[in-house]
Specification:
Order of helices and strands: EEEEHEEEEEEH
Number of strands: 10
Oligomer: single chain
Low-confidence stretches: none
Strand content: 35-45%
Radius of gyration: 24 Å
Mean pLDDT: 86
């Protein structure tokens, strides 16, 4: 590779992009798998690029819309690493989202609905917040067993 090479690569965002050192910049790591992986040795590693952009519009998109696992096509300039164990540096001047990663779902929260009422179960708490389906706060049940009592009290116009 020349000291600097302009190209476009496709890869997955390894972690949520972070603000760069200067205002209007962003950094992120991109993992690129070879397109001809079937013809390469099975233990051929993916290439990691340490990406930066000084384009404030791209930095804004990266910091507000891009998440871990998104498949991107980036264009820019690649600079070889300073040390053999460092990733190549990629200065991004263009960005296209090829495929968004699935939305993150918190697996420790569960919503359960009883008619017009919704309870939020959190694996880390015994108390259970309860709302109407339209979002009106009912109260917090001391335990899952107390949800129906809380709803009954709300229906009767009071709280327990």
């Amino acid at each position: 590779m020349n000291p600097q090479t302009h190209l476009a690569i496709d890869g997955y965002v390894d972690a949520i992009p972070a603000p760069g050192r200067d205002r209007g910049t962003a950094t992120f790591d991109l993992i690129h798998s070879p397109a001809d992986a079937d013809t390469l040795a099975p233990d051929t590693p993916d290439t990691v690029y340490a990406c930066t952009t000084a384009d404030s519009a791209l930095a804004d998109v990266l910091l507000s819309e891009i998440q871990r696992g998104d498949l991107l096509r980036v264009t820019g300039t690649v600079t070889p690493p300073n040390a053999p164990d460092d990733p190549a540096r990629f200065t991004v001047v263009g960005l296209e989202v090829l495929e968004a990663a699935p939305a993150f779902m918190p697996f420790d929260l569960v919503l359960e609905r009883w008619g017009n009422y919704v309870a939020v179960f959190d694996a880390d708490r015994d108390q259970v917040p309860v709302f109407t389906a339209s979002g009106t706060w009912i109260g917090e049940a001391a335990s899952p067993d107390a949800i129906s009592d809380l709803i009954d009290a709300y229906k009767e116009g009071g709280s327990r």
